């Protein structure tokens, strides 16, 4: 009980000094809990939606997906004959059966040709209004569509795009563009996560989406009273046979949920990974805080030992303080985490994904995990300072002594740090010279971990050398104040090393990712310059196929010398070694593609691959399956016949663009795949006549104006698009890493604040002999800048090493240009100095306000 009272007294006596450590714990726990609550809420939202919108049993065509998505390479959904509905109605246990038509291979535009698709990545769905949808949607304005000239829209889409009754809407499909006017607006009775949904009458939907009547994409089956979904499914299969996909409501919901979870899990674990980085940075802050508090209470601890307290009791006293810190920070963090989740939901609402707070899901495991993480991390971080406190001897109470410094431990630390850093460097070198990406990736991961730990362990040794160099470069110009700042930073190299290491971790990741991202852009740009011989690239940013009407518009554009179509498809391959490879990619293109993409061949001529019944393969595929020029590969095209194609060319596997592609001609594909099953173009390439590039570019954009789902880019545009895509990803990652950097800044603030308290008497004496308040504040700011710049140097150097090694692994996949983004690196370095200035504001202000006499009188 005495130990507990002592711990409570010490904790609340230093509550101000504990505050920043508590904030670090709070932020880390809040990020973990916020991530879990947000992803759990999204799962709940989608789960409710899928359960509410699923019929008891659903029947679809054999080629349809488990999730019901109808996006296909042909631009049209798989269908089943309308006669199936009559057959199902006769099945025992069926109460009702209704055929519907819908597709996600569509683009919907308003009369100004602006797309009405969600920005969140959710699908655009056009289908027939039916009884199953009427269970989850209520017509709140107008009426359901009747006739080809009417269409109904969901309320969220209508509100977002300011649609009202009577507005003209265009539905663009592979069959053409259908125009209709808004006849009604329907509101979801469940949460709509952001899909844009449009309804036509059944006959119009069939003609618009499929091109013929008498077919459906789905049949929704309702079970009679007392009949389970599983029994109904068996009965339907018994009647129809195995030629259709038959699923219960639970199977449909589970398939959709699994699809959503695969996306959510990537986001969830990525965000938890950044939370883990924040926790790691927070550990340094907590270690520093308790180390300094223990040092400042050496006399007090010595007195406790002198009056009978054991080492265990002193140790326990410090750990109880850490426990209190962890509990308070974690409890507040759990509450803040719920707030973060709500904020993320609002943010998602801004981009079109509607999440209701009514579905806010806080599982009991979330606060438990948050509390457990926060408390365990805090107590573990405080263990070393607590152990050090237990070593204070009773004699320390009789003199002005601090916690014992173990010179032997310092030597051991330096040796261990050098060994770890050397082993990490060797792993990085081995990764950079690896021949296979898989082995190299493992070595890279090992090298990153070892060098990071090594730099952390060796931090005090590095601080002693680097701070002196920085002092000579940055601080000497400030005269005596600069020299005092340098001396203060060198006074406790262990503390400076730990504070700098916290900042080092975040900046190392920033530097590494910057190098990797910049190198990928530079490599892709270099490959474009070397291999792409076309002027313009037409494609959809959402991966939609290009409709025949849009392709015709491209071909009719004046000023073009040639147009090349590019159609990826899949087939089952049987190779000369007797192996059968299911669902293998193969690209059908026009022969001019050999000119548009100057792809390097290791055998044969790529142009020959476009001869009748011919193809090409890439080098690695050829080596793996014993393929050489003249080999025959049996290719069973999806939805088509089986061909025996002759290998006429073997391409290099080391190029970035179309890496690993296998080519044949569109004419060969058309020979074996019926016209109704032919895949549509994924990309169209166009080249202008000599001297007409600018005119053709403008004409091509004008020709595709009424197809806003497609983008026309010249090579400059395409390079910029690649740069923007990678830049957006990096910016998102930098935003998440900002949490770790914020925690690191808190560490600098806390270290300076406690350092000011520790040096109260010294500061008073310096003020007494003539040091002005302005000079004192400058001294503390300069000390902070040196610590921040020290951490930045370590982090940026380490990160660039990681990034350069990662780029050598990427070179195995064709990304062979190393590009150091010096503007970013220099910008981060300069920003770290401003971080140091910012972190010193409060400690410097408090130091400047000290009463000189009281400071001198401080024990």
Automatic annotation (TrEMBL):
Domain called MacB-like periplasmic core: residue spans: 19-236, 499-696
Record keywords, A-Z: Cell membrane, Membrane, Transmembrane, Transmembrane helix
Chief location: membrane
Molecular function terms, GO-annotated: transmembrane transporter activity
Claim: Transmembrane is one of the keywords in the record: yes
InterPro entries (alphabetical): ABC3_permease_C, MacB_PCD, Macrolide_Exporter_MacB
Start and end residues of each ABC3 transporter permease C-terminal domain: 274-394, 736-851
Compartment(s) where it occurs, according to its Swiss-Prot or TrEMBL record: Cell membrane
Gene Ontology annotations for the cellular component aspect, listed alphabetically: plasma membrane
Pfam families named among the record's database cross-references: FtsX, MacB_PCD
Topological relation to the membrane, as annotated: Multi-pass membrane protein
Positions of transmembrane segments: 269-295, 318-344, 364-386, 407-432, 444-477, 498-522, 732-757, 782-802, 822-845
Superkingdom per UniProt: Bacteria
Family affiliation: Belongs to the ABC-4 integral membrane protein family.
Protein name: ABC transporter permease
UniProt organism field: Streptomyces bungoensis
Phylogenetic lineage: Bacteria, Bacillati, Actinomycetota, Actinomycetes, Kitasatosporales
């Amino acid at each position: 009980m005495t130990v507990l009272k002592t711990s409570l007294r010490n904790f609340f006596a230093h509550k101000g000094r504990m505050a920043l450590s508590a904030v670090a714990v709070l932020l880390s726990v809040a990020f973990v809990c916020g991530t879990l609550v947000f992803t759990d809420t999204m799962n709940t939202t989608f789960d409710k939606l899928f359960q509410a919108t699923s019929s008891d049993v659903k029947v679809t065509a054999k080629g349809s997906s488990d999730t019901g998505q109808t996006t296909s390479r042909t631009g049209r959904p798989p269908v089943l004959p309308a006669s199936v509905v009559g057959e199902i109605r006769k099945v025992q246990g069926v109460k009702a059966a209704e055929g519907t038509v819908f597709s996600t291979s569509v683009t919907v535009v308003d009369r100004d040709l602006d797309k009405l698709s969600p920005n969140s990545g959710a699908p655009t769905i056009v289908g027939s209004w039916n009884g199953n949808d009427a269970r989850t949607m209520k017509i709140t304005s107008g009426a359901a569509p009747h006739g080809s000239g009417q269409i109904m829209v969901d309320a969220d889409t209508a509100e977002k795009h300011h649609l009202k009754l009577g507005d003209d809407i265009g539905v663009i499909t592979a069959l053409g563009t259908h125009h209709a006017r808004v006849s009604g607006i329907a509101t979801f009775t469940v949460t709509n996560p952001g899909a844009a949904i449009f309804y036509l009458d059944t006959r119009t939907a069939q003609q618009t989406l499929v091109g013929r009547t008498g077919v459906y994409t789905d049949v929704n089956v309702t079970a009679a009273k007392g009949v389970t979904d599983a029994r109904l499914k068996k009965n339907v299969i018994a009647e129809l046979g195995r030629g259709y996909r038959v699923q219960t409501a639970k199977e449909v919901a589970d398939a959709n949920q699994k699809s959503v979870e695969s996306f959510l899990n990537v986001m969830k674990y990525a965000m938890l990974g950044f939370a883990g980085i924040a926790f790691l940075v927070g550990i340094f802050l907590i270690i520093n805080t308790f180390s300094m508090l223990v040092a400042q209470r050496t006399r007090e601890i010595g007195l406790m030992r002198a009056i009978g307290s054991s080492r265990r009791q002193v140790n326990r006293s410090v750990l109880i303080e850490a426990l209190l810190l962890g509990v308070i920070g974690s409890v507040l963090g759990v509450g803040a985490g719920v707030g973060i989740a709500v904020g993320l939901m609002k943010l998602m609402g801004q981009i079109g994904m509607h999440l209701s707070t009514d579905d806010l899901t806080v599982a009991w495991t979330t606060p438990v995990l948050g509390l457990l993480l926060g408390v365990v991390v805090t107590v573990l971080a405080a263990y070393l300072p607590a152990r050090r406190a237990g070593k204070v001897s009773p004699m320390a109470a009789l003199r002005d002594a601090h916690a014992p410094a173990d010179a032997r431990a310092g030597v051991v630390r330096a040796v261990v740090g050098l060994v770890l850093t050397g082993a990490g460097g060797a792993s990085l070198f081995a990764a950079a010279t690896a021949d296979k990406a898989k082995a190299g990736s493992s070595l890279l991961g090992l090298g990153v971990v070892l060098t990071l730990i090594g730099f952390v362990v060796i931090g005090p040794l590095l601080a002693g050398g680097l701070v002196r160099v920085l002092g000579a470069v940055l601080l000497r110009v400030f005269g005596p104040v600069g020299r005092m700042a340098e001396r203060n930073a060198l006074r406790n190299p262990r503390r400076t090393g730990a504070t700098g290491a916290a900042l080092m971790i975040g900046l190392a990741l920033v530097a590494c990712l910057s190098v990797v991202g910049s190198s990928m852009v530079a490599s892709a740009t270099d490959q474009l310059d070397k291999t792409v011989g076309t002027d313009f690239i037409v494609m959809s940013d959402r991966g939609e196929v290009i409709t025949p009407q849009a392709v015709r518009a491209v071909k009719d554009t004046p000023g073009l010398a040639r147009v090349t179509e590019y159609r990826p498809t899949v087939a089952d391959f049987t190779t000369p070694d007797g192996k059968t490879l299911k669902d293998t990619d193969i690209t059908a293109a026009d022969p001019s593609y050999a000119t548009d993409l100057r792809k390097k061949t290791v055998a044969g001529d790529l142009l020959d691959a476009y001869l009748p019944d011919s193809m090409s393969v890439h080098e690695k595929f050829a080596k793996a399956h014993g393929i050489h020029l003249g080999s025959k590969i049996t290719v069973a095209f999806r939805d088509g016949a089986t061909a025996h194609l002759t290998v006429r060319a073997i391409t290099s596997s080391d190029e970035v663009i179309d890496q690993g592609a296998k080519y044949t001609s569109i004419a060969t594909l058309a020979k074996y795949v019926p016209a109704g099953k032919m895949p549509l173009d994924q990309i169209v390439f166009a080249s202008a006549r000599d001297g007409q590039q600018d005119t053709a570019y403008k004409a091509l954009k004008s020709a595709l104006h009424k197809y806003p789902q497609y983008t026309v880019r010249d090579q400059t545009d395409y390079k910029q698009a690649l740069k923007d895509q990678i830049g957006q990803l990096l910016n998102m990652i930098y935003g998440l890493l900002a949490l770790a950097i914020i925690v690191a800044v808190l560490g600098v603030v806390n270290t300076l604040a406690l350092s000011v308290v520790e040096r109260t008497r010294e500061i008073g004496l310096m003020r007494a002999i003539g040091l002005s308040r302005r000079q004192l504040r400058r001294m503390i700011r300069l000390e902070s800048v040196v610590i921040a710049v020290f951490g930045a140097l370590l982090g940026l150097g380490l990160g660039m090493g990681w990034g350069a090694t990662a780029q050598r692994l990427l070179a195995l996949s064709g990304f062979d240009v190393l590009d150091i983004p010096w503007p970013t690196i220099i910008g981060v370095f300069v920003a770290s100095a401003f971080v140091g200035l910012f972190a010193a504001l409060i400690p410097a202000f408090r130091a400047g306000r000290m009463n000189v006499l009281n400071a001198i009188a401080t024990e």
